[in-house]
Design goal:
heterodimer; A: mainly beta; 5-stranded mixed sheet; 4-stranded antiparallel sheet; B: mainly beta; 7-stranded mixed sheet; 0% helix; globular
């Protein structure tokens, strides 16, 4: 079963902020929240990740709920090049050979459309 | 340049003819993984490897084999390909601290 839940699709207007939600109600204390995106005809690429505190980088911001059961990826000014499928996944930092930490479930993600 | 390299990018083959898709990373990553992507189904994990000689099944391992004899390489082997293995395949790698995954550019496989 997927560990995260995301809306199937979202729409945004160019140059407006976009908030992409992700629910992860069964998150454990050692799970990092990762976001990736996949542009058309390309492989997925890393966007941002965090554990508890909000995070910012040149691509986006990540807002993490206080109880860590949900998070939001924020694109501050959407451009046409941001149209992609966005995936939210959980990555356990505990390294345990024989455990399931390597089993990463991406799900179907959120398809973001950006209108000019 | 840090990268994950998959070969070939495109492959057309016939049912039952053994094939190998190679994956190599130059970042000294412990973790490597294979995914397949089909329309409407998203990314599904086939196999993963936590380190050399350590491999585990993902969610859809049937019909696939992998090996991890050296750190940089993680080949995906289809001993007897079937048409339902027609898909887009991605290899990924990362270091072992919850760090970001690096993906290859994909291999589009068609089995007739």
């Amino acid at each position: 079963d997927a560990k995260t839940t995301q809306p199937n699709s979202m729409e945004s207007n160019e140059e407006e902020p976009v908030h992409l939600p992700c629910n992860h109600s069964t998150i454990s204390g050692t799970d990092y929240i990762h976001w990736y995106r996949q542009l058309p005809s390309q492989g997925p690429e890393y966007v941002i990740h965090g554990l508890t505190s909000n995070v910012n980088n040149r691509m986006a911001s990540l807002a993490i709920a206080e109880d860590r059961k949900s998070s939001t990826l924020i694109l501050h000014r959407a451009t046409l090049r941001d149209a992609a499928v966005y995936y939210c996944i959980l990555r356990d930092v505990v390294w345990n050979y024989g455990g399931s930490q390597g089993n990463l479930i991406f799900g179907k993600g959120t398809k973001l459309s950006v209108k000019p | 340049e840090a990268q994950v390299t998959q070969n070939p990018r495109y492959l057309i083959t016939v049912t039952g003819k053994k094939l190998t898709v190679t994956c190599s990373q130059n970042m000294n990553h412990e973790y490597m993984s294979w995914y397949r992507q089909d329309p409407g189904l998203g990314l599904r994990q086939i196999y993963y490897s936590m380190n050399v000689e350590v491999t585990d099944k993902g969610d859809v391992p049937e019909g696939y084999k992998v090996s991890r004899k050296e750190k940089r390489n993680f080949p995906l082997i289809l001993e007897s390909p079937s048409p339902n293995q027609t898909s887009l395949y991605f290899c990924a790698s990362s270091s072992w601290t919850g760090s970001p995954l690096h993906f290859g550019n994909g291999t589009r496989l068609t089995v007739t």
